């Protein structure tokens, strides 16, 4: 964190978190609301999320209510001599803490921040569309940037990363648009950092697109994104419908913006900023020459020679040959596809990147007073998250379904479902799972079938994700079939989920994120975004594949009659995929969290679902050996995010509760015969637990596209519970049965 500046803050006690079917909005009470006293007090969850809780205001955990002191620090004596697990009470205390954070609709909220290229887009979209930024947002966004600046004055691709042009230029422009003077020390230091990194000509393509919309860069200096692409027949191997959906939905609105050169008129402020972000006066910059300039601080992969060649042909086509009528036709097509995305996501869009671009397109297509733009304005707040350090944008509109599914699994796997407080919480979570299931398919030709599946966040988002559907299915099966909760979700609806999952399996037996893989890996040569790797197509992932495999196994145990042969075949192929992905060192690489401990936990569960454990599988033994070799003297595991970037295990400076929970769970699922290392890991987790039952925030947990980190703050709460509770419920019986 950089030098601290004195910046105004809002009164954090005035913020309230609203939720409608999981869609969040932080609202700031105005003076009138405060003075007439009609507002409800902040809840514990709100105060916790805003960093306003203190030990005295924190509810006491059951171990205290029972008049017992916190259970004695567990000894590391052999399990057999320790029939009542010393880890059960910490698990219960941990889950009780989670119940205080649950929202009335049954899900959990959290700060899903980290990436730095999301918030600027939303602010830019507001600037271009002349949408006023509420004063409280302005104050809190500025404060956030001040709190998160690096010592050199810049910002990185994600919160823990070193400064890049991408983040520093976008945040700098954002600060200025929010009203910060160029002479403010925060702005001054950011500008110095940006210019030292080479200035805004080194922006990757997505940054260049934004600055062009803002009239701070020239469209001629952005590699072409022709709308015509969307008129091509979909059988073509490079058709956009074959791209990874996250990439496809970004290039849909940006193709419109690029092809129509959409640019906000220059005003005084923009004219000033123009002269602040380049190393030379604006009028002397030859933007055309910078189409492929990417700052060394930012570049993960440079644009391929093939793509540079294609770009030059396409630019010629777009600038000189393409008839106007064709452009109009393509615009219409892209407009239809954009409206379809808006309708299907209740104007949230898939994620904040395409949301912000859509909002700008709505202005240019439909005008400043259009209903479409009004709906977009209304749905900005779902992405904005307020925390102790200010306001930022989440990577999606939240982690609602994902967190809820894992919280349920943690309670059940830890054997806590009979506790009355836990039961009430599970019942609310069950309701959320019920209302969030996707009940129908869409008429969109490019969308993967979703009926019966679950999304990552909310029903409004509406995109099925293979592992979210799988984790949701497991949670419902646990509640309804194993813990006696009512059948809110019928067997037919559970069967729909399985049918949807079966349709998502790839040719290699694995599962991708949102869709089946539709294009060739060769398309990666056409990746124009210099800062992200592997974004062009869906790939199969070990985590997603295992999630589906274990969900199918649990489903089959309860409903063996549903498509028995298809389910068995899918499981067999999925297991083969996971086995094939094991690295020579025995571990698996994690694509969605940090990193080898995460993926190895999943992979080991895939083997377990096929009846293979330490005693019966060489692969599982190698996985255990990999983990054991990395256990630290304090009993924990700690992986640094560089593991993801460098694709080798990189130690964190300290053991991390979340990595430790994953590693011990992997060993337990593997049936590792010696409880000693597991107990040492669990002891570290129990020792780090606070008197309130919670665990404190440590390093960032999640990742995407290998280089961008993203926070999953609830991981530190439910994965420890799951690990602590699994010890006596799942692990001890497993090794004791074996004799
Ligand atoms: C996510 C978040 C959730 C994540 C899991 C469910 C954990 C994973 O197992 C499958 C993939 C998925 C759904 C996922 C995909 C990529 C997302 C949407 C994100 C990491 C959150 C933000 C990110 C998105 C791509 C950000 C925009 C950037 C681009 C490069 C397009």
TrEMBL record:
Sorted UniProt keywords:
Isomerase, Lipid biosynthesis, Lipid metabolism, Repeat, Steroid biosynthesis
User: Which stretches are annotated as coiled coil?
Assistant: none
Membrane-traversing stretches:
none
E.C. number? 5.4.99.-
Query: Compositional bias (Low complexity) spans?
Result: 53-85
Q: Name one GO molecular function term.
A: lanosterol synthase activity
Residues of the region (Disordered) are 52-85
Q: Name one GO cellular component term.
A: lipid droplet
By what name is this protein known?
A: Terpene cyclase/mutase family member
> Which organism does this record belong to?
Chaetomium fimeti
The organism's taxonomic lineage, starting at the top: Eukaryota, Fungi, Dikarya, Ascomycota, Pezizomycotina
């Amino acid at each position: 964190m950089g030098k601290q500046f004195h910046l105004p803050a809002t009164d954090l006690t005035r913020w309230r978190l609203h939720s409608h079917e999981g869609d969040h909005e932080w609202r700031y009470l105005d003076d009138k609301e405060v003075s007439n006293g009609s507002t409800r007090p902040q809840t514990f969850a709100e105060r916790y999320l805003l960093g306003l809780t203190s030990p005295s205001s924190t509810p006491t955990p059951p171990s205290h209510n029972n008049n017992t002191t916190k259970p004695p620090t567990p000894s590391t004596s052999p399990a057999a001599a320790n029939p009542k697990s010393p880890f059960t009470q910490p698990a219960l205390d941990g889950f009780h803490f989670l119940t205080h954070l649950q929202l009335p609709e049954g899900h959990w909220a959290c700060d899903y921040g980290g990436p730095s290229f999301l918030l600027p887009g939303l602010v830019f979209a507001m600037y271009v569309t002349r949408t006023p930024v509420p004063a409280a947002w302005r104050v809190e966004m500025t404060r956030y940037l001040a709190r998160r600046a690096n010592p050199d004055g810049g910002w990185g691709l994600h919160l823990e990363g070193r400064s890049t042009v991408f983040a520093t230029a976008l945040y700098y422009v954002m600060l200025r648009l929010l009203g910060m003077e160029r002479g403010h020390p925060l702005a001054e230091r950011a500008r110095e950092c940006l210019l030292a990194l080479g200035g805004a000509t080194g922006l990757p393509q997505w940054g260049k697109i934004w600055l062009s919309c803002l009239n701070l860069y020239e469209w001629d200096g952005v590699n072409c994104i022709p709308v015509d692409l969307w008129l091509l027949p979909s059988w073509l191997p490079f058709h956009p419908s074959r791209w990874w959906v996250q990439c496809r939905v970004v290039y849909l609105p940006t193709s419109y913006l690029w092809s129509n050169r959409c640019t906000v008129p220059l005003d005084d402020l923009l004219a000033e900023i123009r002269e602040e972000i380049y190393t030379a006066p604006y009028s002397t910059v030859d933007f055309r020459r910078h189409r492929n300039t990417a700052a060394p601080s930012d570049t993960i992969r440079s644009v391929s020679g093939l793509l540079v060649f294609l770009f030059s042909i396409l630019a010629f086509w777009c600038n000189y040959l393409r008839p106007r009528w064709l452009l109009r036709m393509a615009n219409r097509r892209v407009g239809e596809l954009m409206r379809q995305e808006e309708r299907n996501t209740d104007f949230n869009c898939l994620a904040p990147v395409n949301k912000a671009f859509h909002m700008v397109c709505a202005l240019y297509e439909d005008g400043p007073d259009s209903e479409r733009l009004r709906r977009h304005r209304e749905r900005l707040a779902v992405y904005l998250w307020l925390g102790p350090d200010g306001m930022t944008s989440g990577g999606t509109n939240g982690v609602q379904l994902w967190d809820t599914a894992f919280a349920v699994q943690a309670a059940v796997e830890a054997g806590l479902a009979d506790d009355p407080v836990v039961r009430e919480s599970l019942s609310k979570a069950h309701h959320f799972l019920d209302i969030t299931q996707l009940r129908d398919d869409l008429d969109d030709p490019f969308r993967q079938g979703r009926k019966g599946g679950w999304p990552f966040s909310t029903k409004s988002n509406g995109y099925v994700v293979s592992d979210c559907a799988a984790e949701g299915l497991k949670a419902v099966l646990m509640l309804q079939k194993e813990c006696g909760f009512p059948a809110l979700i019928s067997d037919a609806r559970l069967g729909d989920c399985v049918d949807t999952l079966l349709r998502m399996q790839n040719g290699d037996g694995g599962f991708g994120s949102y869709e089946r893989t539709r294009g060739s890996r060769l398309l990666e040569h056409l990746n124009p975004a210099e800062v992200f790797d592997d974004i062009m197509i869906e790939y199969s992932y070990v985590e997603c594949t295992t999630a589906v495999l274990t969900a199918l196994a649990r489903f089959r145990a309860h409903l063996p009659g549903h498509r028995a042969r298809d389910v068995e075949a899918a499981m067999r192929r999925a297991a083969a995929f996971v086995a094939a992905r094991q690295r020579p060192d025995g571990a698996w690489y994690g694509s969605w969290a940090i990193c080898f401990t995460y993926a190895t936990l999943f992979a080991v569960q895939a083997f377990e679902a096929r009846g293979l454990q330490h005693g019966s599988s060489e692969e599982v033994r190698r996985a255990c050996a990999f983990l054991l070799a990395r256990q630290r003297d304090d009993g924990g595991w700690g992986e640094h995010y560089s593991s993801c970037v460098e694709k080798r295990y990189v130690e964190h400076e300290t053991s991390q509760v979340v990595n430790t929970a994953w590693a011990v769970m992997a060993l337990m699922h593997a049936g590792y015969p010696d409880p000693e290392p597991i107990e040492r890991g669990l002891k570290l987790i129990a020792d780090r637990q606070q008197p309130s039952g919670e665990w404190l925030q440590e390093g960032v947990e999640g990742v995407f596209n290998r280089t961008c980190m993203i926070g999953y703050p609830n991981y530190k709460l439910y994965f420890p519970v799951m690990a602590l509770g699994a010890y006596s419920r799942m692990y001890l019986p497993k090794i004791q049965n074996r004799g």
